[in-house]
Amino acid sequence: MTLHRDRDISRESLIADLRAALGKGAVLTGAEIGARHVSDMSATGTAPPFAVLRPRTAAEVSAILRLCHSAGQSVIAQGGMTGLAGGGNPTANDIVISMELLRGIEEIDTVSATMTVKAGTPLEECQQAAADAGLFLALDLGSRGSCQIGGNLSTNAGGIRVIRYGMAREQVLGLEAVLADGTVVSSLNKMLKNNAGYDLKHLFIGSEGTLGIITRAVLRLHPRPAAIATALCGLADDKAIITLLRRAQAELGNVMAFEALWPDYHRHVAQILDVRPFSDDHAFWVILESTAKADDVEAFLAGMIEEGVMQDCAVAQTEAQAHAFWSVRDGHPVDDLPNIVNFDVSLPIMQIGAFAADCHAAIKMRWPSAHCFIYGHIGDSNLHITTSIDYGPGEDMHTVDDLVYGAVKAHSGSISAEHGIGSLKRSYLHLSRSPQELALMRTLKQALDPSGILNPGKVI
Fold first, then answer.
1. CB 357 within 8 Å of CB 314
2. pTM of the predicted model, to two decimals?
3. Which residues share a beta bridge with 372?
4. Averaged over 426-442, what is the pLDDT?
5. pLDDT digits over 41-72, tens only?
């Protein structure tokens, strides 16, 4: 009882210090803490933190971490909570730093083609600001309206434009982050070339808040692309998908997105949404986007049909039609199924077809009534798998994890393509990283966060 009482006194003292540092309304406790702070979209979080802090500046984040570091208090940074790996999930003993008020675009430099932005700014707000300035922010995710830039960078988010522009990492020129002890490391570089020593921003991009908390970033912008042609293609087999991808890149060029949908997934979603532009069904489907001239796109696609690479194709004539094609890929009807488990893996491109077949067959063999939906970006090696399974006695989502990640290992893939490791994939990280790599990760963690207060229990 004495230990619990001492802990409560320590917490009360820390909360009082935090209120003094941050001011009224920035520290939430008890019933003030909303349900959104319990779990990300994996729905695996079980308890609210004992406090939620809402800083507005990097200086306030620094003050928070100085106090928490001194008290040995664990801290979880939360953004839009759109992740699927449990990376933002707290325990009842954690303090959450919500980045929702650390928001705003500080500058758009049209000469340097850069945007300086605070970490809590929603991605969609950044995209619109870039467009209003006549430029283009390449990072794009389905959760664009609610995900935040800081979370995008701390997980090294991917999205649908990776095939053309690369991961979130490639969109960052400069970064500001706060270390565990409150030290602010600010390197808001605007230059594309800068080899002055270690490129420290890469310590924080993709580290899921375990090495420091990102507070500001300088994002690289691009010229606005020309009109985008969106096509929905029907194909006979998975080998034709790879052929179409490589031919499109070599002959058509300017491929912005390339999304493949396996048959179970497409049939389920397209039937519910009633998006069926062809009279005939096809085994596989691809959504292809290109900024090549419309006539060139149509000529290329016609040639692919003549050569038998694909069986049919529809080119969107309006933005509404393009949106309808993408609505199938976004797959929201799948969310209504029970016991959903989402996987985000990557495979060597030539292994994708074999992996998908093996994974699907293994799941259906063990659970014949299961739904196993497979789709992905393909051109950047990324596959998504969504399962809905009626578990037997002693089974849960980790039973499915064992099966899927075992297949990933067998096909020399990675257990995480773009959603990070968080807490849900931590015990499987050794399948994709060597002992030497894991040891180096622990060395970095110990060097930057020796007390282990930043997002404990995540990644490693």
1. no
2. 0.92
3. 387
4. 97
5. 999 999 999 999 999 999 999 999 999 999 99
Paired with 109 in beta bridges are 114
**Residue 9 banded pLDDT, cuts 50, 70, 90:** low
Q: Where do the DSSP E strands lie in 221-295?
A: 222-223, 229-235, 255-261, 284-290
Confidence of residue 326 (pLDDT cuts 50, 70, 90): confident
> How far, in Å, CA of 323 to CA of 320, rounded?
5
Contact 80, 148 (CB under 8 A): yes
CA atoms within 13 A on the CB side of 437: 7
Give dist(CA 210, CA 151) in Å, integer. Answer: 12
> What's CA 387's distance to the chain center, in Å?
19
Distance CA(325)–CA(334), nearest Å, equals 16
Classified by CATH at the fold level, domain 105-223 comes out as 3.30.465
Looking at the structure, give the CATH architecture of the domain made up of residues 229-329: 2-Layer Sandwich (3.30)
C-beta of residue 107 within 8 angstroms of C-beta of residue 61: no
**CA 53 to CA 271: how far, in whole Å?**
45
* Tokens describing residue 208: 């899921």
Q: Which two tokens stand for residue 314?
A: 């529809």
Average pLDDT on 224-250 reads 93
Q: Which of 24-28, 40-44, 329-333 has the lowest average pLDDT? A: 329-333
Question: What are the residue ranges of CATH 3.30.43.10 in the chain?
Answer: 2-101
Q: Return the CATH number of the domain spanning residue range 337-441.
A: 3.30.70.2740
Task: Identify residue 154 by its one-letter amino acid code.
Answer: S
* Cα(241)–Cα(113) distance, integer angstroms: 35
Which pLDDT score, from 0 to 100, does residue 327 have? 82
State the DSSP H helix or E strand holding residue 187, giving kind and residue range, or none if neither.
Answer: strand 184-187
Strands 105-109, 95-98: pairing kind: unpaired
Distances (CA, A) of 391 to 85, 160, 328, 395, 428: 21, 32, 27, 5, 21
Task: Report angle CA 130, 331, 341 to the nearest 5 degrees.
Answer: 110
Q: Give the whole-angstrom CA distance, residue 421 versus residue 42.
A: 12
β partners of residue 98: 78
- The CATH architecture that domain 2-101 belongs to is 2-Layer Sandwich (3.30)
Interior/surface letters 376-406, b for 16+ CB within 10 angstroms, e for the rest = bbbbbbbbbbbbbbeeeeeeebeebbebbbe
Nearest partner of 322 among 273, 272, 287, judged by Cα:
287
Structure-token pair, residue 345: 């893996």
pLDDT, tens digit (0-9, with 9 covering 90-100), for 333-349: 677 889 999 999 999 99
The Cα–Cα gap between 454 and 311 comes to 52
The least confident of 6-10, 119-123, 176-180, 390-394 is 6-10
